[in-house]
Amino acid sequence: MRVAxxxxxxxxxxxxxxxxxxxxxxxxxxxxAVSAVDTIFVETQVRSGAFGEHFAVQPPYVPGGxxxxxxxxxxxxxxxxxxxxxxxxxxGFTGGYAEQAVAPVAKLVPVPDGLGLQEAAALxxxxxxxxxxLESTGLGAGERVLxxxxxxxxxxxxxxxxxxxxxxxxxxxxxxRKTSLVRELGADVVVDAAxxxxxxxxxxxxxxxxxxxxxxxxxxxxxxxxxxxxxxGGIFSAHGAPTGGFAPVDASEAERRGIKLLGIGDVQxxxxxxxxxxxxxxxxxxxxxxxxxxxxxxxxxxxxxxHAAIEARTLRGKVxxxx
Length: 323
Fold this sequence. Notes:
Blueprint: E1 2-6, E2 15-19, E3 29-39, H1 41-47, E4 66-74, E5 86-90, E6 100-104, E7 109-110, H2 117-121, H3 126-137, E8 144-148, H4 153-164, E9 168-173, H5 176-184, E10 189-192, H6 198-206, E11 211-216, H7 220-228, E12 230-238, H8 251-257, E13 260-262, H9 271-286, E14 294-299, H10 303-312, E15 318-322
Parallel strand pairs: 8-9, 8-11, 9-10, 11-12, 12-13, 14-15
Antiparallel strand pairs: 1-2, 3-4, 3-6, 3-15, 4-5, 5-7
Helix pairs in contact: 3-4, 3-9
């Protein structure tokens, strides 16, 4: 079968097409014929050679942790009824940029009728994490939430879920195309991060107290600026680091101000939790209450172009690979 493989650490050009043997399902596993692959920013960072202390991968390897497709074969101790079902699953961090992938049946999530596989793929990671973030922060009606990276795959979902929870949403994105999308998705206030005074604008929008909850999907200096906008006694959740690192928040200052700090470790889920939250995200999308925004699709053979587009930050929402 065909895969996209990282032959060495480096730029997008190191992601090349290759042929490998077809996978075989072992006990408790299924082979999924892949239709669409979720691609996320951290995959581009690891491909470049970053975050080696967190991701134990060495070239050559096949990236990709989130897929949508149809079950084509199952191993021992797996019901044959799975065969032919459209599903999504999270594989970990490797194996998804492929025409077929093996996954444990315990982590397969059926795709509801009426929801396309591309839309489902856009929820494999971000839909689950967004639902988990809403649960972990306990965001409720009337609370002020600040969302950084509001036009990305995760941010677009968080805007919609926060609005559905009754929160007052302030979204930060960069440029007219991206801010217009965030506004379209229902944010009460949208701030353009390209402006030199975006922090002052955000502070004015939130009011003197600041945000009850900050959802930082950007990290770095913008994330640190957002921490300063968190209300005393509020919650600051850092779940993204496309800037190259998470916001360098001073834990002692957070403690002094009574701010609860949450990190990406707080949304690392068991298989059971993953399946529950993935099913919830898929159900919301199938019912039309949650809209996955797909900014671009690339065939598997152009995986390098997909990575380049993600790094250029030119697209809104999700980038997918398709077969």
